[in-house]
Amino acid sequence: MRALRLREWKSDPVLVDVPDPEPGPGQVVIRVGGAGACHSDLHLMHEFEGGQLPWGPPFTLGHENAGWVVALGDGVSALQVGQPVAVYGPWGCGRCARCRPGAENYCEDPANAPVPSGGGGLGLDGGMSEYMLVPDARLLIPLPDGLDPASAAPLTDAGLTPYHAIRRSWAKLPPGATAVVIGAGGLGHLAIQILKATTAATVIAVDTRTEALDLALKNGADLAIPSNDGTTASIRDATGEHGADVVLDFVGTDATLAMAAAAARTLGDVTIVGLGGGTLPLSFFSVPYEVSLQTTYWGTRPELVEVLNLGARGLLQPEIVQFPLEEAMEAYRQMQDGKLAGRAVIVPS
Ligand code: FEH
Ligand code: ZN
Ligand code: ZN
């Protein structure tokens, strides 16, 4: 089969022929129906170098995947050949105190995971190929009726990551509250939909790009504000000078982190999701009183079930641009140039 493989750090991936995977005991092979192209893949291609992560190339890209079961390893009885499934992406050990309730994104025993801290498309072979080997049936969630694999794929990361970040802040988003989404791209446009579907908060989107602000309004944002020197003042203005109860930063640069802290309300949450590499000085007066500041990484398996439920009911609809496997690099180019409105999904077959 053909596979888009990252062969070494700081290189473009290449489309090559590799053997079809065979499932070992407890494993499952799926035919890939969709593999989302994530902004993190650009970091993998251009920024990381040996030793920075506990895993590395070569591996097939694609860490947000869905498809159909094609082969079951010995002992797998919970799935059937032909069944449509989504792949839960962060592959932990499956046995530690975090993994048992499904928070494999925060596995505490990564040495016993298939690969430390990674997953398919992150050190192990991912979904940018015709077939994908999933090392344990527990990592596959049957798709609910109404959801096809190409639409489900982005939900496993671009949907699950903001869902997790928003869900942990639900208590701070009662009616009357305000949530700010910084960066209305692949994750941000779904964050807006999730906020709208699961809270009664007013949603303000912030982005530098006019098209992203248009996308935000189309996806239900109440207000879309260009990112510039006046953004924080506009947010304060829109919130009766209080600031935002929850600020979700899907960019994570120095500039957006400073904006997030300045826009937050006392007792609010500032959550850093984007890998922009920025830093935020923290001191007694640098953020409003009792603002909680956190990073989040991906989401849990039970949360993925909830995200797929929202997707199947039409409450979460990723804006998708489909590309065949041969044009995957074009998808990444458009993403790099900021020309993609929504999420690129590679459909290999
Ligand atoms: C991938 C690799 C490293 C950090 C974060 C990510 C996310 O895209 C996973 O959702
Ligand atoms: Zn990702
Ligand atoms: Zn674990």
Automatic annotation (TrEMBL):
Q: Which UniProt keywords apply?
A: Metal-binding, Oxidoreductase, Zinc
Looking at the record, the residues that make up the Enoyl reductase (ER) domain are: 10-346
Q: Where are the transmembrane segments?
A: none
The record's section on Gene3D superfamilies has: Medium-chain alcohol dehydrogenases, catalytic domain, NAD(P)-binding Rossmann-like Domain
Name residues in a coiled coil. none
- Enzyme Commission identifier(s): 1.1.1.1
Q: Which CDD domains does this chain map to?
A: arabinose_DH_like (cd05284)
Which PANTHER family does this chain map to?
A: ALCOHOL DEHYDROGENASE 1-RELATED (PTHR42940), VACUOLAR PROTEIN SORTING-ASSOCIATED PROTEIN 11 (PTHR42940:SF8)
Q: What is this protein called?
A: alcohol dehydrogenase
Species source reads Actinomadura monticuli
